[in-house]
Amino acid sequence: MRISRRQMIKAAGGLSAYLAAGGLFPHVVRADGTVAPRRLIQIFLQGGWDSALATDPVVGSKVTGGNYDAAYAAKTSEIVSGKANLRVGEGFLAAIPAFISVPTAFVNGMYVEVTAHELATQYMLTGQQTLTRANEPTAFIASLAEAVNAFPPHVVIGGTIPLGATRTSAPPLAAGNVVALQSFLNVPEKGLASAPGLGDIAHELTVALDRLRFGDGSASATSAAWLAAESRLLEIYHKNFGAQLAFDDAVKLRYGTSEATSNSGLIAGAFLIAKAGLSPFTTVLLPGFDTHSEPLSTQLARQTEVAGALTNLIKDLRATPDPDAPHLALSDTTTVVIMSEFVRSPTFNVISGSDHWQSASAIVMGAGVADGVVLGKTADDATALGWVDGAAVPFSAEAKIGPEHFAAAILKGLGYASLADPENAGRLDALFT
User: Fold this and answer.
1) pLDDT value at 357 more than 70
2) 245: Cβ–Cβ under 8 A, 6 or more apart, which residues?
3) Which residues, listed in sequence order, are joined to residue 284 by a DSSP beta bridge?
4) pTM for this structure?
5) Which DSSP string corresponds to 138-194?
6) Winning range, highest mean pLDDT, from 59-68, 150-159, 209-218, 341-350
7) Cβ(335)–Cβ(413) below 8 Å
8) Partners of 384 in the beta sheet?
9) SS3 118
């Protein structure tokens, strides 16, 4: 069967627009005049983390008083050496070596109006609030991906993120973990069309290319976009991307886990994706932080695992050349964001657990980050305060920090100011240099 160029373009749909650049990743001009890639690893702790055990949003209040449960008084915290503004709670003490080794900033007291998990997750990942599950905004990492002209635009492991309209225009590679992702990227025995995991539009593209390659040798794709697309697909499948994602014994030992599905294993997967240069943007979804009915020690144990894996991730990023700029380490080109949909309540319920709370916090590390900066604050009762000109003020709609300000800051900080809402972009400008 002969396929026309028109049929091929129709099969590709919106994908053809961002394939035109043939896998070009985002770059910025550094202060020294050199050009460097920009990458983002987004680590999302699902369920709402207890940030008072991590970034200590009210310095000392969980020990000295306020409305925090008395159990917090027994928990330790430390100031990061050389970064006096960064006080780390007991849950993230294992991440202090990472905070020391790369630029690190904390964001606290982001006001989250909705605390139902799905709606709050959408709010944090998109910077857009919706009061209905039927309305799915676009995650800011998907907006970045659509603007990049790369294939695949981004990778998601551990679950799904809101994609909105970019579901068809910039579908991610998605898998439960890096081992599953590796199987997607191994060369299929029956041709590219049999490859799972690429998303509907990308799958249609592989079908069209397979028809060209295996079904009709006389057909030709003369469009530059199609030639670039085929080149990138061949690179993915035939230049050992799958092999580079091997969750082998060395990786397992380094991250202290034998399971790719563990939180440590998922974070290790983020490193393997970055090392391979598969995509500029990766989201890692970590389960297990919805601790309504579990004791405080459960949050501590899970945070400690994440913190240790984060230290290993940063160590690996520092020791690994960027595949697109070998003169730079991945830590020079990659920004890492640790976040959750909200935080846990400052007091415990009758079963020693904690509930949802109308505040959120985040850790931002690596390339472009303003080192040692803390933005936002909560009051002694753990409610969000306002933030104006780098100082805490009484809460108001005009002065609040919300997920919309955080999303805008990330977009702008990674060099995509045109994607950021101009009304929100300035509130957290100090997050990046």
Assistant:
1) yes
2) 178, 181, 182, 185, 269, 272, 273, 276, 278
3) 43, 157
4) 0.87
5) --HHHHHHHHH--SS-EEEESS----TTHHHHSPPEEESSHHHHHHHHSPPTT-GGG
6) 341-350
7) yes
8) 378
9) helix
